[in-house]
Amino acid sequence: MRDSHDIRLAVIPGDGIGGEVVAEGLKVLQALGLKVETTTYALGAAHYHATGEILAEETLAELRGYDAILLGAVGHPSVPPGVLERDLLLKLRFELDHYVNLRPVKLFPGVETPLGKARPDDIDMIVVREGTEGPYAGAGGVMRRGTSQEIATQESLNTAFGVERVVRYAFDKAMTRPRKKLTLVHKTNVLTYAGDLWARVVERVSAEYPEITTDYCHVDAASMFFVTDPKRFDVIVTDNLFGDILTDLGAAVAGGIGLAASGNVNPATPGSASWAPSMFEPVHGSAPDIAGQGKADPTAAILSVAMMLDHLGLTAEAARIEQAVAVDLVERQADWVSRTTREIGDDITARVTG
Amino acid sequence: MRDSHDIRLAVIPGDGIGGEVVAEGLKVLQALGLKVETTTYALGAAHYHATGEILAEETLAELRGYDAILLGAVGHPSVPPGVLERDLLLKLRFELDHYVNLRPVKLFPGVETPLGKARPDDIDMIVVREGTEGPYAGAGGVMRRGTSQEIATQESLNTAFGVERVVRYAFDKAMTRPRKKLTLVHKTNVLTYAGDLWARVVERVSAEYPEITTDYCHVDAASMFFVTDPKRFDVIVTDNLFGDILTDLGAAVAGGIGLAASGNVNPATPGSASWAPSMFEPVHGSAPDIAGQGKADPTAAILSVAMMLDHLGLTAEAARIEQAVAVDLVERQADWVSRTTREIGDDITARVTG
Ligand SMILES: CC(C)[C@H](C(=O)O)[C@@H](O)C(=O)O
Ligand SMILES: CC(C)[C@H](C(=O)O)[C@@H](O)C(=O)O
What we know:
- The structure is a homodimer.
- By secondary structure, chain A is α/β, with parallel strands linked by helices.
- Chain A contains eleven helices and twelve strands.
- The first copy, chain A, has two domains: 204 residues, Isopropylmalate Dehydrogenase (3-Layer(aba) Sandwich); 139 residues, Isopropylmalate Dehydrogenase.
- Chain A is globular, with a radius of gyration of 20 Å.
- The complex binds 3-isopropylmalic acid (2 copies).
- Chains A, B: Its EC number is 1.1.1.85.
């Protein structure tokens, strides 16, 4: 990589607990002995209120120059719904072509799950959520707003190009897993146009992966099986909106949003024309109600750092973090004391170095 | 009502286990001492294979003449996905203007839930799902099918008329509940056009219901809370597709799809121009894998009969069935023996009459 650094990283702490959890993620990262150069970008609700700006074109251009981006969380009730989501978070996903939204759903040993009978082996899947199409395209409109004749439309846009590339990624991911199983989740019986495209692409690509067992599940049934039979899933590939819903549900069954990491991934080869930095972030939001109190669990942010390292090819370092988190989670249960955000970060850092 | 009958009922047993569970629902209904006249319509996969017909216009016209419709389940793997759904189930919902899809999510005492710590008081909500709009409108299309340039669109259509009527129904429903709380579930931060319409309508109508506490929850967060904190919900009002997903999830947390009843409701006053019969059905499907073996749980079908009676104003009779089911569910747990579909129906019938 460029300079004499292993990683040139852009950091967007964001709002609320974002900064607190990102600080712990960076602490763990710095303990690995890699050469990391970080540059912080103050984006989010506070920046918007102060400057009226959400994401300037020059900032976006600068962000393209990093190896990766680490984001805490953005959002505050003072900003109308949709504004930061559309013009910051989704804009980054679309502009940097993060067409894979990678969300592991994994129950670590020692972690309490709301599912009374689930054991860690029962919940171990990866959701490959499409990140740049579907109902997230922003297409739609409104007519006769505010009258009794108002209509509002919202359009899901799906392309063979967009579906095929994420489906291929999911098949490749399934090849790395012992069970080698891929499930398409959609709603083909109602969303017949989009569903038909997804189903045909999966069927066609599956011919190139004879080792992979492929099946299909409607999204309504899948949400049921996340609770009653999560073991049936290994790798899931799904549409942007279904992936959004299922991965929050997945976070809940795997012990909570405080542990769920995600990657907004552009899988192109670095240096190629379609490459842009990938962005890693905890699935949780900015939680303004507990901000500044040291109450947030930084584990999801720390696991997001591990996902980032894995993506950058630093797999041994990623594994060290995951291992440290796994040990911490087991000991959390055995030896329950309430720790602050910083204490959890310190403990995981100590396990990484020690 | 017409003739000397209390209820003139059209019955669509359907495919797979549909006929088995409907038979038990009718057995319980007949035990109440009401004057019920039933007419059976053989619709579904078998009928389609035999005749090439899914729902003839004359059949639809006849169905309009009943007080209500009871449906078992339709569907078989031999019919391509979407065909029976669109041309039978959804067609009935659209033609008979079933704009309220009513789905209680309630954990009965004695019923095992996958949520280790949930008690019956924690799960007691009603999902009011819109039934005739949104992504179910069937709007969309495909271009350059089968090529690398294919695009497929799927459009969600939302009208002030359609949203307002279901929102009003939900507020009225919330007024009948002790907690008087209504939650709008949507994804206003991404589906900004449709979400904005829903949010504005809920806000406007809420002014007429000062006793009701209204709040909002994104669908991804809602799916998480169904598992981690179902108690926060009392009445939910939501879009057709979100309601589809959440109610299957709801069935799972409330003890399984074998217990979940639903009503496709047209709330107009009988005799008025917009009235048409409402249709009641278990949420589960036709389960061809266990059909004909007496293994299906008829409880959801029986509870669907209770919902139907309630809708027809026969509230005392509805309560008798619900009470009988509640007792049966408690005793099931205490005294576990595996019973056939018919035995469960017999036992609940005995409790209704006894
Ligand atoms: C904040 C929101 C736009 C976002 C999404 O819907 O994708 C979030 O829920 C997520 O899952 O990352
Ligand atoms: C069978 C299907 C069309 C239907 C739906 O999506 O509404 C079903 O899942 C339901 O919930 O009643």
